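Can anyone check this?
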Amino acid sequence: MRCYIRPAHLEAVPVLEQLLSRSIRALGAADYTAAQIEAALRGAFGVDTQLIRDGTYFVVERDGRIVACGGWSYRQTLFGSDTRDQRDPAPLDPERHAARIRAFFVDPACPRQGIGTALLEHCEAAARAQGFTRYELMATLPGVRLYAARGYAPQGSVRHPLAPGLDIEFVPMHKDLGSTAR
């Protein structure tokens, strides 16, 4: 079955929201509690329509069905949906900043089939075409394995507050083309 990567469109936002909800609920269940996942779906996880409007968010289609989504950004915001506070749409300078790899989710029926890797390589190439030679991201715990296998190095971990008494662990990661040949 052949996959096709194309830019995401605003009309697909409801489908993307359903995909990422299914993805994190199934693939994140070993790393996060149900309470963490549900709270994170209210802001930390979700579609950032700025990426779609910028043309830097993509979907992977297989047999006419969206099976993955993810993108990159030339803006300051590192993670989170439209509803997340602390967003910064200021543009990044490729000479000084790393491109942001953003919001990767794969259908739980399609894990470990190379779909996430193909999408990541597509996003890295698009960012590279805009002059970026470094990438950074805020990985979910299940996402760390994909990114580490593709040359991203972890930078510790952070606890992101979700609600009073509830937080979620993320892993900041980076990749520098000057030191990593991938």
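Reply from J.R.: I decoded it. The mean pLDDT is 93.
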